[in-house]
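[SOLVED] Need 3D model of a two-part complex

Original post:
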Amino acid sequence: MSYFQECLTSGGLLFQEERRALYKYLLEINRDFYTAQAHVLLKEGTVTRSIANGEATFILKNKKVNYSARMLNSPEIHSEIREIKLARVKTRNIRKLQKFFAQSDVDIIRNFPLPSRYPREESGFGISVYPFYTLTYYADGKNLLKGLVRKIRTSDKEILVKLRTL
Amino acid sequence: MPKVPSLLVVGLLAAQFLVLQVTQSPEPSCSLNIERPHYSTSLYEIQNVDAIKLNITSTCNVSQKYTQLSADIQKIQNNREVTAYSFDNQRRSSTTKSPNVVTFKDLIAPCKKGAPISYRGTAQGYVYLEGGKRVNVKGDSGKFVAAGCLIGAQ
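Solution:
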């Protein structure tokens, strides 16, 4: 089993550093897929897809995109988990949506990992409040300049190498 | 039998309703239960990973939508209290089964087995109630307790 497959099974047992690296990895390997999904979303106003043991539905409304999630085959929906505001320029929106999709995939993997022999404890939907693509994440909601410095200093190289190893 | 003006009756009933509302609906209050940070044997058994785990539960006397927390693990180093690990700002929703309670069970920090280090968990944030009100919460796990795994020695 590759480390990436392990991540899909580990879910909530991932360290936050692993989740951040997973975000970068998903953005890297799914760039074309996310672009295609972004085009569908911008054209049709909604797009749904599944990853690990969960499903995300993205809805475009009033220049804002939010997503809801549920475990596969479960009726319980966790609605409007995250939201982003779109810009006027389409190419910029595509880039924003790529990051938004990668972040939501990490959220889904964390909350709805693939079934394993270890029982999953029932709990609500958990997320890191600040998405990995914002400086606010690195600043922990405080000084953005400090966040920028921390972002530059943050290296997930070791975990990314593991993720890239098939 | 003397007649009671209907306006007075309506007024009295309204006053009684208001009094009952005030006395019956409890003032929303929430509290945090922060368990002592401990070495996670289950994580080692499942993933062969060394980690210190911090479990936190927020409980309210009314339904909550979610709890948002900023949590840290403190350690004693050179007789001083320092931050060993800061978790990302976390938000977790309640469940339909337990709408008053939110449990954080995935706050884990990587560590390296070795000499015992004393840790304590702290957290602060707020609970967002179903009615839209925010209640601030804050707490810690009490006294420092030793665990045989050093955070920040990766």
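Edit: The CA atoms of residues 41 and 81 of chain B lie 25 Å apart.
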